[in-house]
Design brief:
Keywords: Coiled coil. Pfam families: HEPN_DZIP3. This is DZIP3-like HEPN domain-containing protein. The structure is a single chain. By secondary structure, this protein is mainly alpha-helical. It has helices at about 10-40, 45-50, 50-60, 70-75, 90-100, 120-135, 145-160, 165-170, 175-215. Helix 1 (about 10-40) packs parallel to helix 5 and helix 6 (about 120-135) runs antiparallel to helix 7 (about 145-160).
């Protein structure tokens, strides 16, 4: 794999950026389709105002799992909410929390078994491919690595409802340096948001564990026998 200098763009850099575009644009498209099927656009406001959904989302906001700017997209002060404004991070969060999707056999954070190809498993795979790409420090991919990643991601997106013609178009579209930088930054932001969510969840789990310890260690108040 070639490594690009800081001021140059190579074929390997373009390969990486093109893969980011497939994952981000394609992933956003299929996740939005799934979300819209659960909460149709014409009824989205009603679904978000549903008491149970609103309580879940408010709790996510209170615990800093849902960001303030995401909350505004869900509950704008003017106009009605639209899923067209939801990015892939927000869509992933909503699918897991207010769409009644079954929890994948290996959970929402672990690699599904190769034989598990449910919708929920493939939603997890989209995130895991993001993880793999975000750990490629050079932001560059050889043609061989690019083709392998592309074929794997393409398979998942197609199962989730992506259009083959649209995917083929992405593979051949020209990309200028500004496009490459944009998708590199999108991937970085997506990864940072997921890390922030993970830290928030871990913080909640730690608080719960401490509360349980405090409860177990609390002394029992003695009572006098025969008194009520």
């Amino acid at each position: 794999m070639a490594t690009a200098g800081w001021s140059t763009t190579t074929k390997e850099n373009t390969n990486f950026a093109r893969l980011c575009k497939l994952l981000i644009d394609g992933g956003t498209h299929v996740l939005r389709k799934i979300f819209d099927a659960k909460h149709p656009p014409h009824d989205l406001k009603k679904h978000l105002m549903d008491r149970r959904n609103h309580r879940i989302l408010k709790n996510l906001k209170t615990t800093n799992i849902l960001r303030g700017d995401q909350w505004i997209k869900l509950y704008p002060s003017v106009d009605a909410p639209t899923s067209a404004s939801f990015d892939i991070t927000l869509l992933s969060l909503l699918l897991r929390n207010i769409c009644n999707l079954p929890t994948p056999a290996n959970g929402w954070s672990n690699e599904p078994a190769a034989t598990s190809i449910s919708q929920e498993d493939d939603i997890v795979r989209v995130k895991l491919y993001r993880n793999k790409l975000s750990h490629i420090s050079e932001r560059a991919l050889s043609d061989a690595d690019f083709n392998k990643y592309w074929n794997d991601i393409e398979t998942v997106l197609l199962r989730l409802g992506a259009d083959m013609a649209a995917i083929d178009s992405l593979r051949t579209q020209s990309m200028d340096p500004e496009d490459e930088e944009y998708y590199n930054e999108c991937l970085k932001e997506w990864a940072e948001n997921e890390e922030r969510l993970l830290q928030a969840i871990l913080g909640l789990e730690e608080k719960m564990e401490n509360l349980l310890k405090t409860s177990h260690n609390r002394p029992v108040r003695p009572t006098s026998e025969g008194k009520f």
